[in-house]
Specification:
Structural class: mainly alpha
Distance between the termini: 41 Å
Low-confidence stretches: none
Number of strands: 0
Order of helices and strands: HHHHHHH
Radius of gyration: 13 Å
Number of helices: 7
Number of domains: 1
Length: about 110
């Protein structure tokens, strides 16, 4: 399944976010699964909604998974659409940055604004 996840082009970004959120919530963070989610998410991050950005960041932070490339992709997508984030998405994204000690000043400035 893990190899299939990494190569499945029809997998929608909301599914990636849902899988990441679900496994993080369950306390299960299988490294090959995490790597497949990360690779697929980075490849499709331009399609992320505010909820998908915040859910994936939250999932990483809940399990304290340091994934700099994925967080960079999330930040790059989140900044231009920060006005679409509801308060919960802003809070989840800010919390994820704090918990992961991920300092991305343009993202943090956008959240603060």
């Amino acid at each position: 399944m893990v190899a299939h996840l990494a190569t499945q082009s029809s997998l929608r970004v909301q599914h990636l976010a849902g899988i990441a959120w679900s496994f993080a919530r369950l306390g299960v963070w299988h490294t090959p699964l995490r790597d497949a989610i990360s690779a697929a998410s980075i490849a499709s991050s331009a399609q992320f909604s505010s909820q998908e950005c915040s859910n994936i960041a939250w999932a990483l932070a809940l399990r304290r998974v340091q994934d700099q490339p994925l967080m960079e992709s999330i930040a790059a997508q989140a900044i231009p659409m920060i006005n679409e984030f509801i308060a919960q998405h802003l809070g989840n994204t800010a919390w994820a940055c704090a918990r992961l000690q991920y300092v991305h000043m343009p993202l943090l400035d956008a959240i603060a604004a």
